[in-house]
Amino acid sequence: MTAILPPIPRLVFTVLEPISLLAGAVAPFVSPEWFIAEQIAFSTAGPVTANARMVAYQLGNIYLLLAMVGIAVLSSTTEAKVVRNYLVALWLADISHVAITSYILGPELLLDIANWNPMTWGNIGATVLLFATRTAYLLGLFGPDRKPSPVSRSNKKLQ
């Protein structure tokens, strides 16, 4: 994985986030009905239509794509600008993800944190934690980016 990230962001962005994205990718394929019903805790979802199932499968596919792009970008570059631009794009997506989820939940369900289901914790709780970690990294709170060692570059060329 990218050697330029400090240890905490490296763990979060190259291990924990891809694992959570893979879980999000698998869930709609295991049970699209469950995945759809769990989007809003205590909602009374009716029968799942083919349209809803298609949207759930496509969302799972997007989660898988995000996991693969994240792993590819963060494991293949030592360019700080690439890593930072990638994380800024995700930072912006975190904002819209939480905003849309909050809007759809409405104030009553949004503020009823004690009754959030695992899906809501993932959509809001996990996203806010990722957003906070990205913010801290982008502000330099984890320290400076590490410089890739010239030895590791030359070793890669030899292999």
What's the helix and strand layout?
Layout: H1 7-30, H2 32-37, H3 50-76, H4 80-111, H5 118-138, H6 150-158
Helix pairs in contact: 1-3, 1-5, 4-5
In short:
75% of the residues lie in helices and 0% in strands. It is mostly helical. Pfam families: DUF7704.
- In N-to-C order, the SSE pattern is HHHHHH
Kindly state the number of beta strands: 0
Structural class: mainly alpha
By DSSP (H or I, 4+ residues per run), the number of helices equals 6
Characterize the overall form. globular
Main sheet? none
What average pLDDT do the residues reach? 91
DSSP strand (E) fraction? under 5%
The helix content, as a percent range, equals over 70%
Radius of gyration: 18 Å
State the domain count.
Answer: 1
Low-confidence spans: none
Amino-to-carboxy terminus distance: 17 Å
Organism: Venustampulla echinocandica
Domain DUF7704: 3-144
Keywords: Membrane, Transmembrane, Transmembrane helix
Transmembrane segments: 12-35, 55-74, 86-104, 124-143
Description:
The protein is mostly helical and 159 residues long. It has one domain. 75% of the residues lie in helices and 0% in strands. It is built from six helices and no strands. It has helices at residues 7-30, 32-37, 50-76, 80-111, 118-138, 150-158. Helix 1 packs antiparallel against helix 3 and helix 1 (7-30) packs antiparallel against helix 5. The chain is globular and about 60 Å long. The model has no long low-confidence stretch (mean pLDDT 91).
